[in-house]
TrEMBL record:
Alphabetized UniProt keyword annotations: Methyltransferase, RNA-binding, S-adenosyl-L-methionine, Transferase
Domain of life: Bacteria
Family: Belongs to the class I-like SAM-binding methyltransferase superfamily. RsmB/NOP family.
Protein source organism: Hydrogenophaga intermedia
Protein name (record): Fmu (Sun) domain protein
Residues annotated to bind S-adenosyl-L-methionine: D251, D298
Length: 423
């Protein structure tokens, strides 16, 4: 594509994504569907440019106050991910002069928001939690996430998977904490690998793998994945159950559960039962009350632990949306808890970094439910032979909760708490 046409296309996509009426990945995917002639390299430039503009929005908007042309074009120029000379061949002379001036702004001229690129309410909440580590956390959230895979333990061993990936020319290493994880360098295309087609590998962040591990579901048990979505954790849990027992995958989105079906077929699991529920108090849940050994509540949340992958969330979430999520999280947790039999394990998890969706929800539940005993996470992970389990649980919280931070653990941000239902 001609440089001028590609920059125009980037500008249009930046404008569409910055309406923030839909998730950025959905807007980008729709643009690609509607423009089938775009090649892989052009698609790469378009999505990288849009994501760069989302990540560094405050810095770019500040720079874009000078210059000419539409704001969206200036953001697209600043975020443009392709070759510099290629970009310059699409620019007018005044734009080239402006871009050179932008490159000369010194580090000490930036104000704090231009460095952290977070809305003030979120920067304040994170600073309160991590203190001196705030700059490291903010810098980490501006980087793209690595590509993690989970091996299907029903079909392969990690060493064999690593050897196969390396033989295919990929740079693959074992993840530091998850026993099932493989981290890949770069953004290789995975579709062509036979190990994907035959269900030996799935894409899943290392942190997400640790949540499924923490449930510790066993052979022959009755287990519920209450907010299963497209089944990232369901697949891992089904494999730990060695394809025995019964694993219900509940979700209010039938659409998301539909996306689980081809993944299930690839995985070789036949113990999973997807069930679309109307809401968390659905009749079908009541029928299973008191019969379940383990329940995972991977609650709908702000997703602010995944900003490396979904930087639009920091602009789409507000204190009001977070408060609404927290209310829903409390309702789901309370309802899901009714499923457990005495001695059963309840795991509450989010991919949020905010106390309001994590510790606060947990404290409210514990106070209202004396029949549930809180269990410290670090010893549970140690028993599961997770290396450095204590370091994943945050010294300040007395190792009670899993607390994964992108800058500390190089995973997405995750939280988990565990209870045992008293006999
Ligand atoms: C964090 S996502 C789940 C991700 C999934 N567990 C995975 O590992 O891929 C939260 C899910 O909760 C679902 N959800 C929202 N409200 C719900 C409710 N009231 N009851 C059950 N699930 C709900 C959403 O549709 C969404 O799929």
């Amino acid at each position: 594509m001609h440089p001028k046409a590609l920059l125009d296309e980037c500008t249009a996509l930046v404008e569409a994504v910055f309406r923030f009426d839909h998730p950025a990945d959905a807007v980008v995917a729709r643009h690609f569907r509607e423009n089938k002639s775009l090649g892989p390299r052009e698609r790469g430039t378009l999505s990288d440019t849009v994501y760069a503009a989302l990540r560094e929005r405050l810095k770019f908007e500040w720079l874009a106050r000078s210059g000419s042309g539409s704001k969206w074009r200036r953001l697209a120029i600043l975020g443009f991910s392709g070759d510099r000379d290629f970009l310059k061949s699409a620019l007018s002379e005044p734009e080239k002069v402006w871009l050179d001036a932008c490159a000369k702004v010194r580090e000490d001229e930036w104000l704090a928001p231009h460095r952290h690129n977070l809305p003030e309410w979120l920067a304040g909440a994170l600073r309160e939690q991590v203190g001196d580590e705030f700059d490291a956390l903010a810098a980490c959230l501006l980087q793209p996430a690595p590509l993690d895979l989970r091996i299907n333990i029903l079909k392969t061993k990690r060493d064999d998977a690593l050897a196969a990936l390396r033989a295919a020319g990929l740079k693959a290493t074992a993840t530091a904490h998850s026993p099932w994880g493989v981290r890949l360098e770069g953004k290789p295309s995975l579709a062509r690998l036979p190990a994907f087609a035959n269900g030996e590998l799935e894409v899943q962040d290392e942190g997400s793998q640790l949540l499924a591990l923490l449930l510790d579901a066993k052979r022959g048990e009755m287990v519920v994945d209450f907010c299963a979505g497209a089944g990232g954790k369901t697949l891992a849990i089904g494999a730990t159950m060695r394809n025995t027992g019964r694993l219900y995958a509940f979700d209010t989105s039938a659409h998301r559960l539909d996306a689980l079906k081809p993944r299930l077929a690839r995985s070789g699991l036949s113990n999973v039962h997807p069930v679309a529920i109307a809401h968390e108090r659905d009749e079908r849940i009541k029928r299973l009350a008191g019969k379940i050994d383990r329940v995972l509540v991977d609650a709908p949340c702000s997703g602010l632990g995944t900003l490396r992958r979904s930087p639009d969330l920091k602009w789409r979430q507000t204190p009001q949306t977070v408060a609404a999520q927290a209310a829903l999280q409390r309702a789901i947790l309370e309802s899901a808890a009714r499923l457990l039999k005495p001695g059963g394990r309840l795991v509450y998890a989010t991919c949020s970094l905010l106390r309001e969706e994590n510790e606060d929800v947990v404290e409210t539940f514990s106070a209202a439910q004396p029949g549930f005993e809180s269990e410290a996470v670090a010893p549970l992970l140690q028993a599961l032979k997770v290396p450095d389990a204590q370091s994943l649980c945050g010294a300040h919280e007395g190792e009670r909760f899993l607390r994964l931070w992108p800058h500390r653990h190089l995973t997405d941000g995750f939280f988990a708490a565990v209870w045992r239902k008293k006999a």
